[in-house]
Amino acid sequence: MVVHTIVLAFAADPVVRWVWPEAHQYLESMPAFTVAFAGGGFRDGSAYTTDGYGGAALWLPPDVHPDDDAVGDIVDQTVARSLRSDLLTLMDEMATFHPDGPHWYLPMIGVDPAHQNKGLGAALLRHALERCDREGLPAYLESTNPRNISLYLRHGFVAVGEIQAGSSPTVVPMLRRPR
User: Fold this and answer.
1) In terms of DSSP H, where are the helices of the chain?
2) In terms of C-beta density within 10 A (0-12 exposed, 13-18 middle, 19 or more buried), how is residue 16 classed?
3) Which residue of 81, 85, 105, 152 shows the fewest CB atoms closer than 10 Å?
C-alpha cells in the first residue's frame, strides 16, 4: 500500500518523469525503485503513513542507506541509455550534500493526488521531525519538485544548494537542524 501511494504521488514529479517519461516505463519501474531507494524505512520502522494511505513518508534513520546495488540494477535495466550518464551524475551530486554526521534522511514523501492539499504532507513531516528533534539530529532531503519546496521551508528546512546534470531537472537539497 505504501509503495502504491508513493507511485501515485510521484506520477508528475519532474525528475522521476524525466527518468521514465513514458507511463508504462514509470509504472513498471517506480515500485521497485521506491523499495531500493527508500525501502530501508520499512525494515527500520520509519515508514509512516496517514490513515487510509493517502500519504506516505519513507525515512531512513542514521546509518541506513538506499540499496545502491539494487538502484544501480534498476537504472541499468530501465533508464534510457541517453539519460543514464546524466542520472548517475545527478545521483552522485546528491550524495555529496548529505550531512557528514548522523542524520535522518527523507528519500521519499508523497501524497496521493486525490488527497493533496489536505495537510497530509505536513502531518507526515511533523510526526517525523518531532523524532528528529527529540534525538537532536538533523533531517535531510532532496526536493525533486519545486512545488514542494514551500512545504519544506515551512517546516524548517533550508536549501543548501541546487543540483542539475545534463538534461535533468533541478534537484534542491535541503537540511533542517534539530530544534
Assistant:
1) 2-9, 14-19, 23-38, 40-43, 68-78, 81-97, 120-135, 149-154
2) buried
3) 81
Cα–Cα dist 93/91, whole Å: 5
Closest CA to 128 of 167, 100, 157, 149: 157
DSSP state, 125? H
pLDDT at 43: 86
Report the percentage of the chain scoring pLDDT > 70: 100
Could you say which residues of the chain have pLDDT below 50?
A: none
What is the reported pLDDT for 44?
81
Task: Indicate the pairing of strand 55-60 with strand 47-49.
Answer: antiparallel
C-alpha cell at 141: 532531503
* Strands, sheet with 47-49, edge to edge from the N-terminal-most edge strand: 47-49, 55-60, 104-111, 139-143, 172-176, 158-159
Question: Rounded to whole angstroms, how far apart are CA atoms 83 and 8?
Answer: 23
